[in-house]
Amino acid sequence: MTKIKFHYGDDVPLEMHKVRIVQKLNLLPIEERAKAMDEAGYNTFLLQNRDVFMDMLTDSGVNAMSDNQQAAMMNADDSYAGSATFTRLESKLEELFGTEYFLPTHQGRASENIISQAYVKKDTIIPMNYHFTTSKAHITLNGGKIEEIYIDEALHLTSDHPFKGNMDIDKLKNLIDKHGADKISYVRLEAGTNLIGGQPHSVENIREAKKVCDEHGLMLVYDASLLADNLHLIKQREAACADMSIREITREITDQCDIIYFSARKLGSARGGGISTKHKDVYMKLREYITLYEGFLTYGGMSVREMEALTVGLEETMDEDVISQGPNFIKHMTKQFQEKNVPVITPPGGLGCHLNAMDFVDHLSQEEYPAGALAAAIYIISGVRGMERGTMSEARQEDGTETLSHMELVRLAMPRRVFTLSQTTYAVDRIAWLYENRELIGGLEFEEEPDVLRFFFGRLKATSDWPEKLVAKFREDFGDSL
Ligand SMILES: *Cc1c(COP(=O)(O)O)cnc(C)c1O
Question: Which among 59, 116, 263 is the best mutation to test ligand 1's pocket, defined by most ligand atoms within 8 Å of the CB?
Fold first, then answer.
């Protein structure tokens, strides 16, 4: 990557693109934001986008597309079977991943549904570096059990370990020795480990994992949804890869995988998803499920326009200027938070900036959903919508007790090429103010609690009148500012 140095002042991440289409944003007065949060049951998923200033909920399906992606969408071949659009996408994946076979799906979790139905046997174990919500749900639904074999540093919120997403290879060996390879359906490795803060794995780590899998006849299944960030961070942090191109690093990774699946809402900044493999038998087994659950083999629930956007988006993922934008903004935002002593996960990863709610609101217990409360407070004081990633995102145990999450995080996702640096500076400014006034943030409790994936639709209420107190303090300090 061209490293741009500034002569006056500190280096800031410089956008290697220009904005040619814009969308008007709305910033409501704080009183209206507090009302909107209350009406949304203190669950940021239930806010209306028109009430949101910066939508940092997720990077899923909201990354900015390029002009070339938009242009390609106009040139799509609409046919149920044998579409030229599909062939272009399949060829691009073969070129980049070395996988002869591709099965399209409507999004990442659809790929997980199919892989789990095909390969997860009842009472087997699926070792993985860390779970993702939908990955775990599909494996559990099919009677499997996940075992997270992350390295010890993975859960150290402040660290300088470059690859907190690595799988602990000794734990993998021990797990196989303990249960026997026949009790393991496959080994799953996730790129840019989502739930621990978008943390990458190294090329060395996936090579070692593959070696152990090969020794025991196990498949390595790779969740490549957040591959783009991981590629950039490997190039930055893994000495052996510093002189390799992104294309070469991609092949180093994908050559180790038996099945690669992804959400194209993230990878390739498009929509849809899919499963790639070099093995014909895997392809033959999985393809029956595609026609059953997704659609015919040449569209799998995606529109031809999405497929064209994905083909171009995958090629653009090989461009360092493109994939560095997200992680560079995240790095910058993390640094700004650190300068203001706001507790934030380090080292910065991909996907977004992650606030450590356990420290931010250390006067709240995990049963009061500190990350959920912090996400609600952030929206009220700034109009920035983040996502709770903590106890609220877990399911209760069978006896009704809470499953306390390892971490209580508020994720401020950084959709690629969507926000400007002044907008991120605004978010940091407001959140730093909130940190100074953190004792005003109170807890939440459920009013309506769904049994499955409660964090999506659950409605909560404040356990006291703390939102009103927060609004009053804001008015005191910010006057009539929005
Ligand atoms: C988003 C995501 C998924 C699921 O993809 P969807 O397209 O949202 O269904 C799976 N794995 C990881 C790592 C993800 O980040």
Answer: 263
